[in-house]
Amino acid sequence: MAQDTSTANAWKVLRRFLVGILFVLLLGVFLLSRIDNPRAERFRMALVDRFFPSFEWALVPVTSMTRMVSDFQSYTRVYEQNQELRGELQRMKGWREAALQLEQKNAQLLALNNVKLNPRLAFITGEVMTDSGSPFSQSALVNIGRQDGVRDGSAAVDGLGLVGRIAGVGEVTSRILFLSDVSSSVPVVIVPSGRRAIVRGDNSIVPPLDFLDSEAGVQAGSRVITSGDGGVFPADILIGQVAIDPRGHFRVRLAADYENLEFIRVLKVTPREDIGGPGEIIGITEGGEE
Amino acid sequence: MSGAEAKPRRWVELLLFMLLGFISIGIPIIPMGLAANSIGFPDVMFAVFTAWVIRRPTSAPIVGIVFFGVLADAFMMRPLGLWALVLFVGMEVLRLSERAFRDIPFVLEWVYVSVLFALMLLLQNTLLFVSFDSVYTLSDVIWHWARTVASYPLVVLILHWVLRIRAYKKDNLPNRLGYVL
Question: What is the ipTM of this complex?
Answer without folding.
Answer: 0.81
